[in-house]
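Lecture notes, continued. The same structure-token format from the folding unit now serves as the input rather than the output. Read the line below as a description of shape only.
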């Protein structure tokens, strides 16, 4: 089970522990935080804590959510998944916006984990039931490519690639305004916001964070930007673009929401994980998997007069062998916006499948 560690800074000192943790937002309401503390899931400087403990600057708060209670609340659910690629070791999906990846207080049902528990009735016992095989994560309202391992060995091997920064990820973002530089690199440390604990911020003493970007097009006060995060900090792309003065369209948490986003019909952050590249942990072959834009981003680009960016969509092409198969296989990759194709380069064991956008 994950252990979350928070160092109390001056802004949070003199708060009650229960009020502070409820304000972070990760562990639910104040009453849910009380239950977590009562179950022994919270320590201050290594000592079991009480809800009314008053925090002091510099203290270390450790949160260990109860596995037993959490597992009891997570149930398999028949939630459909858009599968981009699958073999005996990997499952790669195009996550829709609005789907929560990991269960947490307030989101025990309707998560990707519930979908996986339903899909894998015979899930390997060595995978964590609260995050079975999930290698990385996407925010609830971010769509796109997500890689899932089917066993602990595959999970460990992929995790090592992520930690070594050998995995390449490309996102598509719609940002407010016209960026001064058409391409560039943002190097600004990211840490938790000193006051608004649900937010991250660029701040001294934060963890190193690097984001590369390139503007694809801009019109009507909106820029379409390809983004390549070189590190994996929480909310990294959203925080970095906001720090440049160009928050992601629809991102209320970082200044991109409000009336102007509502006028464009974009109630969530316009951010999509478009592509991922890594080495298959078992075959050793390079993998490159892309995910088509969801309908709301397609529609937004159309309204902005940028439909040409998504006009070339793949047609369906399924071999007889695949029609008899129980799961989809890999397909050719295309980097144009709006395509939903993946690539397992030149593998004789895997056939191609071009999924038509529905």
């Amino acid at each position: 089970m994950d252990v979350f560690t928070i160092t109390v800074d001056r802004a949070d000192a003199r708060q009650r522990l229960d009020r502070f943790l409820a304000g972070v937002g990760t562990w639910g309401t104040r009453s849910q935080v009380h239950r977590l503390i009562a179950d022994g899931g919270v320590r201050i400087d290594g000592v079991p804590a009480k809800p009314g403990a008053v925090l002091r600057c510099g203290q270390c708060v450790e949160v260990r959510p109860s596995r037993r209670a959490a597992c009891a609340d997570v149930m398999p659910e028949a939630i459909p998944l858009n599968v981009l690629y699958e073999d005996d070791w990997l499952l790669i999906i195009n996550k829709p916006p609005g789907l929560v990846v990991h269960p947490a207080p307030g989101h025990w049902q309707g998560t990707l984990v519930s979908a996986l528990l339903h899909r894998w009735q015979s899930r390997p016992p060595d995978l964590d039931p609260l995050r079975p095989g999930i290698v990385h994560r996407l925010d609830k309202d971010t769509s796109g490519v997500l890689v899932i391992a089917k066993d602990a060995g595959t999970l460990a091997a992929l995790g090592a690639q992520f930690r070594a920064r050998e995995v390449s990820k490309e996102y598509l973002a719609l940002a407010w305004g016209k960026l001064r530089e058409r391409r560039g690199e943002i190097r600004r440390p990211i840490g938790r916001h000193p006051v608004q604990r649900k937010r991250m911020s660029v701040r001294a003493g934060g963890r190193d964070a690097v984001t590369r970007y390139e503007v694809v097009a801009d019109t009507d006060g909106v820029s379409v930007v390809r983004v390549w995060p070189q590190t994996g900090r929480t909310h990294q792309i959203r925080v970095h673009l906001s720090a440049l003065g160009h928050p992601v369209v629809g991102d209320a948490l970082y200044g991109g929401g409000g009336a102007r986003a509502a006028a464009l019909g974009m109630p969530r952050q316009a951010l999509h994980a478009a592509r991922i590249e890594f080495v298959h942990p078992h075959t050793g072959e390079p993998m490159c998997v892309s995910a088509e834009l969801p309908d709301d981003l397609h529609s937004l680009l159309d309204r902005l007069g940028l439909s040409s960016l998504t006009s070339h969509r793949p047609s369906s092409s399924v071999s007889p062998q695949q029609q008899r198969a129980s799961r989809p296989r890999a397909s050719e990759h295309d980097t144009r916006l709006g395509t939903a194709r993946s690539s397992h380069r030149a593998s004789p064991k895997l056939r191609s499948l071009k999924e038509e956008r529905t």
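Point for the exam: The two ends are 38 Å apart (CA to CA).
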